[in-house]
Amino acid sequence: MKHPLGNVALFYAGGLLLAEFLQPPLVILLSVTLAIAVAAILLSRWRSFLLGPLLILIGWTNLVSRTAVISPHDLRLILDKPDIVTVRGVLTETPTQRVFVRDEEESWRTLARIRVTEISRRGKSQTAFGLIATVTPEILGTNFFAGQQVEVSGILAPPQPPVADGLFDYRTYLQRHGIYFQLKVESTNDWHSQPGSLTARPIADRFLNWAQATLARDLPARDEPLRLLWAMTLGWQAIDNEIYAPFMQTGTMHIFAISGLHIALMAGIFVAVLRVLQVSRLWCGAVIVPLIWFYTAATGWQPS
């Protein structure tokens, strides 16, 4: 077979499509999937006929399990309307910045994601479970990073739907990432680190800070050319949409995503340098492969 995994991908994708429109109880899906898996193992004569339905069920069950309400402390069960709250939890990633330009004036926003463990409202605290997105005016300090326990106050509500049909649906985008609520924070003063939190930034963050400082060395203030350089080499995303627009119109937006092009260029440069130093091909691979994985992790595992 020229494409041995083609049918596997089609069956699995079929299961994902079913999950988009039909979401039966997770217990039923798990039971049926387990029964067919056992039957496929025990009944060798029927195995080839059972693998297709099994793959469909695996894809179906996987997506439903990511969207179903399982915990009794799920935020979808706790919060039925927008409310002023204080949440406590762990930052799943280091906060990132976005810049918007209106009337030639820049305004900054900080975006972050928190895995909530506790929520307080109207003076009462309770255990909570869920992943939320946060948006904060201005730039949050560098003392907040992935893995840190934080306490943040603001208005917690479902994300806004698109203002018109056909526009980008931010609510659906977040839901596909398991996020059903967005916390709108009034200022950076509403962010507090919890006692016992991490004090050392992750090595990936320190690498990005070093790389940005190195690329900006001997250059003027943080201007658009420098931001474009950061975006193309480090996956930095704080660029105004007006700057992105020409790239989207010409179909060259992919140069801002850390993709195979970036990996190939980096690998080629490393290989050339190591071969000049008379390093064997085996050791070139042993050195370069971990470096590429580190670069991919440091730039945020960006899909492209």
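That was protein one. Protein two is written in the same sequence-then-structure order:
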Amino acid sequence: MIRDLSQLRAFIAIARLGSLGRAAESLHLTQSGLTRILQRLEEQVSAPLFERRASGMVLTAYGQAFEPYASLIVGEADNAIKELAALRGLEKGLIKVGAVGSALAGIVPEAVSCLLSQWPGLQVRVEEGLAQELAVWLAKGEIDLAVTFSMPTTEDISLVVESRQQEGCKVVASLDHPLRAKGKLKKEDLLAAKWVMPPRKLGPREDWQQWFLDSNLEAPPVTVETRAVDAMRSMVVQCGFLSWLPQLLIQSPAITHSLISPLVVESETCMRRFAVYRRRHGVLSSSTAKLLEELKRIVGAM
């Protein structure tokens, strides 16, 4: 049984920095002292956690399996200390929430605004990511809540609330794109265009590919791949690319100046559901539970 959190903190530092020397420096330890801590931890778990290579420290299969649990335990311990400090009035409650870009266009700001109007002393840290990234961050305890499109639950994350069907992604172009002159388009008209899209194996990219496959068409090649929504919009406006963006991001008042809008395409039906997820393991702080209630109210009413 592991009773010393400092061993887990040492393990996490080595895994993150990939070097005993850098990890020892970050923890204000000697390298020999850190080595002894790691040896004791490996003895307790009866498995080698790292491979020592010329390039640095690399997690073994045992280490890879151990890392998310170590991160969760240390994160929960830190959260417990912060929660007690908040109850004593020594610091403000901190809420860590992640969201897809379209949820940041409306759902998350509304929930945070309602929360802070009632408890102005709270602090909220918001991270933007794609659905698969949010699932990983949630499982590792890097965020406490995720607002994203519906995705499968796992042993690490659980569904809290889900919206009704919402209009999903659309093909977008600049207002002066040549394809607009054709009026209503067919999917075949889009095959020769330049596209900027998220990387492969991510939800929006797979939905886009399936949208073409539904008409027995192979999705066109992607010229530029990026995870950054702002970069996608810039490529659409400045370079004449097409992209595939959620309806909420297209309609957001914050981007009405961006000079993009959907193209009119036959059979353009892509529906999605918004959902709120939380970590299945661990305890939510009282401040995070308050935000969760606001998110449940907003998403449940959609």
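Residues 61-87 form the longest helix (27 residues). Keep this in mind for the problem set.
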